[in-house]
Amino acid sequence: MATLSSKKFTCYWIIIYFLVLGCSSTEKATNNTSGSDEFLINTVAFYNLENLFDTKNDPDKFDEASPIMEIAEGERESIYKKKVANMAKVIADIGSETTGLPPAVIGVCEVENFKVLQDVVNDKRLSAYNYGIIHYNSPDARSIDVALLYQKRVFQPIHSKAHELVLYDDTDRSKRKYTRDQLHVKGKLDGEDIHFIVNHWPSRSGGEKRSRPNRVNAAKLTKKIKDSILTHEPYAKIMVMGDFNDGPYNESIKGVLEAKESSEDLRLTDLYNPFEKLHKKGVGTIAWRDTWDVFDMILVTKSLTDKDDYSSYKLYQANIFNPYYLQNPKGRYKGYPYRAFADGGFTGGYSDHFPVYLYLIKKK
């Protein structure tokens, strides 16, 4: 059996003993298997890459509003390379404490284009894992998109589609608000069909109350995509991930998506939100005015929650990835996510969001 510390281990899933897995999870397997059972494990994650823009001004986009364009032109390239390296480092580390490998699949947002994603996956920390990229240019006013990265030897895409979210101005219904698409990808994870819906819902610009209808409408589109999948595949394994700009308690998540705090007694059409428990413990993915919230989440359908049958992939743990190096080291915002850009300059940090991730396991 390959060991977690093996430097030469090149497979894209690993076999681990059930008892190796940590005990700090929000979800734990409760089946009565023996301690000698062997399991496969994969990490699935989501990360807001905070303004990952290149250094070139695209005349067809409003990318001049990106933070890197505020930096002196002669310094942009070196700062861009540092930002890319920082993103690659984080992705390489997510889940690796248990698996020894970066995520099999990771959704990302706040990326300008396909090229910046290529630079990330080609970084020395990730290049050996041969990541594929699924990305569509969206009509977003800030020129930012969502995407899915996947290790090709673990996940094979079958179908992908960008679903347009159409919003209109509150006071003038003839004026459209341009925002991010929602990305649906279906593929095979170690031979199993799994769906991913990657989101970056509209921000709270103008205030939470005023902007709330935008996120409610985003939730309605997500629900439509999810329900359409389930109509054709009632037992589909679906993972809805993203920066929702809302917490587990908001109308968009609780009301429209009807995400449940408990995995017990779920209907086939329901979504389970393992991050609601973490929110109630006072931890979060973002911080504002000394208050933590969980805007970044991964929700799953019932078919991923059955603890009595590990013959196929099931959810085992849900966590927030927040090591010390991702936390602001000093000052008023010490302990907050160590953002990359502030006050018109590059801080040396990473992102204003912590990543989230799940472990999926199944019997060998």
Features:
364 residues; Deoxyribonuclease I, Chain A; 20 strands
Describe the overall structure.
The protein is α+β, with helices and mostly antiparallel strands and 364 residues long. It has a single domain, classed as Deoxyribonuclease I, Chain A (4-Layer Sandwich), CATH 3.60.10. 19% of the residues lie in helices and 30% in strands. The chain has helices at residues 73-93, 96-99, 114-121, 208-232, 251-256, 275-280; strands at 14-17, 38-52, 105-111, 131-135, 145-151, 155-163, 167-168, 176-177, 182-189, 192-200, 238-243, 259-260, 271-272, 286-288, 291-293, 296-301, 314-320, 341-342, 345-346, 356-363. Strands 1, 2, 3, 4, 5, 17 and 20 form a seven-stranded mixed beta sheet that branches. Strands 6-9-10-11-16-13-12 form a seven-stranded mixed beta sheet. Strands 7-8 form a two-stranded antiparallel sheet. It is globular and about 55 Å long.
List the helices and strands and how they pair.
Elements: E1 14-17, E2 38-52, H1 73-93, H2 96-99, E3 105-111, H3 114-121, E4 131-135, E5 145-151, E6 155-163, E7 167-168, E8 176-177, E9 182-189, E10 192-200, H4 208-232, E11 238-243, H5 251-256, E12 259-260, E13 271-272, H6 275-280, E14 286-288, E15 291-293, E16 296-301, E17 314-320, E18 341-342, E19 345-346, E20 356-363
Parallel strand pairs: 2-3, 10-11, 12-13
Antiparallel strand pairs: 1-2, 2-20, 3-5, 4-5, 6-9, 7-8, 9-10, 11-16, 13-16, 14-15, 17-20, 18-19
Helix pairs in contact: 1-3
Briefly summarize what is shown.
The chain has helices at 73-93, 96-99, 114-121, 208-232, 251-256, 275-280; strands at 14-17, 38-52, 105-111, 131-135, 145-151, 155-163, 167-168, 176-177, 182-189, 192-200, 238-243, 259-260, 271-272, 286-288, 291-293, 296-301, 314-320, 341-342, 345-346, 356-363. It has 364 residues and is an alpha+beta fold. The protein has one domain: Deoxyribonuclease I, Chain A (4-Layer Sandwich).
